[in-house]
Write a structure and sequence with these properties.
Elements lengths: L7 E2 L4 E2 L1 H10 L9 E2 L5 E4 L2 E5 L12 H14 L7 H5 L2 H14 L3 E5 L2 H12 L5 E5 L4 H9 L3 E5 L4 H10 L4 E6 L11 H10 L3 E5 L14 H4 L9 E5 L9 E5 L1 H10 L1 H4 L6 H16 L1 H21 L10 E7 L1 H13 L2 E2 L1 E3 L9 E6 L6 H19 L1
Parallel strand pairs: 5-14, 7-8, 7-9, 9-10, 10-11
Antiparallel strand pairs: 1-2, 3-4, 4-5, 6-12, 11-12, 13-16, 15-16
Length: 399
């Protein structure tokens, strides 16, 4: 049967792709891509229409910063467009090396190692550090890349209730051998911060290592934007493995892991997504170096985006929206029902506002929500415009 006819057939199997896709449409879970035109920013042209956007992870407003664009242009002139090879062959440029050194200094660790994406970093770290005799413990609301990393390793994986350190301690007491605790620093769908100090204490008490994925904390939280681990006052002895991304607050692309000399050398030897992948373009590394300096120096960016959060939460509470306990730029509005989340999202789109409607399986059943995110590039007027439309929608759905 031709692919276009809705399935693939063979002598021993058949895939009914058409029916599976239709079930997703019927359940309101179908994902569609939109096409944007122009640089990232609060106002986007999406599918040919100008929209006010509250759905990006560009928390510091750096994705379209001309200083990053200039650095990337200079990087292209010096290094060309692509790295041409994996880091371990001939693709590791001086730009990559300098960025790794600057990331290590920024995070207060001996070494840092670049990965092409955060997803690849998480898969590589967990698999490289554990084997069949070990146990990995994960928060139930961890990002999909952390969950997949746990599933792909040969170690046993256990999941504990969200932010429930007592439940984690119970699990740790049941096991022997090497143990790795894995958590997000800032949870990407709820916007809350992990109880990192308590997790570090549990790890210390049970001889475990703690790994923190701080994709949504780096650049936003802590002194100079050093992230949720720094904000919690923890050091490398308490959090030996720190992962961060470059494509969110820093506005470029890629990811890194920071830690000891021995950790980084181990990952260079054993992390398959590092060993067997072409390096990121050196020009992206050059832009990331500039972004890192800006993030550390321009404190007003953090102050502005967190000011937008306070302004939004004050207005949303007046309206009576069901907010989650988040003080970060990720502000979910809980709606529960998938169909209701889709209707709110469509009503916002009609008014020219783009937000994310987050539905299962990204979040658990019954917890569909609007995921509203803020950037330093937004203005107070943008926040007020969002609140005005949400007020109208809330009144409409109350009738």
């Amino acid at each position: 049967m031709p692919r276009g006819a809705g399935g693939l057939t063979g002598p021993t199997m058949s895939f009914d792709l058409h029916s599976d896709l239709q079930r997703r449409r019927d359940a309101g879970l179908y994902r569609r891509r939109r096409v944007s035109d122009g640089p990232q920013g609060p106002e986007l042209v999406v599918d040919g229409r100008r929209m006010l956007a509250f759905c990006a992870n560009d928390y510091l407003g750096l994705a379209a910063d001309p200083r990053l664009a200039d650095a990337m242009t200079r990087g292209v002139a010096r290094y060309g467009v692509g790295a041409g090879a994996a880091h371990l062959i001939s693709g590791h440029s001086r730009a990559h090396h300098a960025l790794e050194e600057e990331l290590a200094e920024f995070t207060g660790r001996e070494r840092a190692l670049l990965f092409s994406t955060g997803y690849m970093a998480n898969l590589g770290i967990i698999a490289a550090l554990t084997d069949r005799n070990d146990t990995v413990y994960e928060d139930k609301l961890n990002h999909a890349s952390l969950i997949d990393g746990g599933l792909l390793t040969r170690a046993a994986m256990k999941r504990y209730a969200h932010a429930d350190v007592a439940a984690l301690r119970d699990q740790l007491r049941q096991d022997t051998g090497r143990r790795l605790i894995v958590t997000d620093g800032v949870f990407s769908m709820d916007g809350d911060v992990a109880p990192l100090a308590a997790l570090a204490a549990a790890a210390s008490d049970h001889g475990a290592w703690l790994m923190v994925d701080d994709a949504h904390g780096i650049g936003v939280l802590g002194e100079h934007g050093r992230g949720s681990v720094a904000e919690a006052g923890l050091d490398v002895s308490q959090v030996p493995i720190l992962m961060g991304t470059l494509g969110k607050a820093l506005g470029t692309a890629g990811a890194f892991v920071a830690g000891s000399e021995e950790l980084i050398e181990t990952l260079i030897q054993h992390a398959r997504p590092y060993v067997y992948t072409t390096a990121m373009p050196p020009a992206v590394a050059e832009a990331s170096r500039v972004a890192l300096r800006i993030a550390a120096e321009e404190e007003w960016r953090r102050e502005r985006v967190l000011g937008h959060v306070q302004r939004f939460r004050h207005g949303a509470q007046r309206i009576g929206l069901n907010l989650m306990a988040s003080a970060t730029p990720i502000q979910p509005v809980m709606l529960g029902d998938t169909a209701l989340a889709n209707r709110w999202n469509e009503a916002l789109l009609r008014e020219g506002i783009l937000v994310g409607a987050i539905r299962p399986p990204t979040v658990p059943e019954g917890t569909a929500r609007l995921r509203i995110t803020f950037s330093a590039a937004h203005t107070p007027a943008h926040v007020d415009a969002l609140l005005a439309v949400l007020t109208e929608i809330a009144a409409e759905f109350d009738r």
